[in-house]
Write a structure and sequence with these properties.
Layout: H1 2-11, E1 23-25, H2 29-33, E2 39-43, H3 45-62, E3 75-78
Parallel strand pairs: 1-2
Antiparallel strand pairs: 2-3
Length: 86
């Protein structure tokens, strides 16, 4: 969505990041391929998937009701070209 936002702003005469800064989430291939490169929050998707599968497997094997849990995983700000210093 952030890459789409960059395109919409550019198509309407705005300069990124001179006129508007745009930041995305989930650093992926699109953030590297778009121009300007997208500043994003990177997360370890593989670790998130492993934790989810392990949680579900434990619940299935124990035959207990699934309880709500909150996990806080580290993220990383990956500053690239779509944001300007204020």
């Amino acid at each position: 969505l952030a890459v789409d936002a960059i395109n919409v702003f550019l198509d309407n005469g705005f300069k990124v990041p001179e006129d508007i800064s745009i930041t995305g989430f989930d650093h992926n291939i699109f953030s590297e391929q778009c121009r300007p490169k997208l500043t994003t929050i990177g997360q370890n998707v593989q670790k998130k998937a492993v934790l989810a599968v392990n949680f579900l497997t434990e619940r299935i094997q124990s035959k207990q009701a699934i309880k709500k849990i909150n996990l806080l995983l580290d993220v990383e700000l990956i500053v690239q070209d779509s944001t300007a210093r204020v």
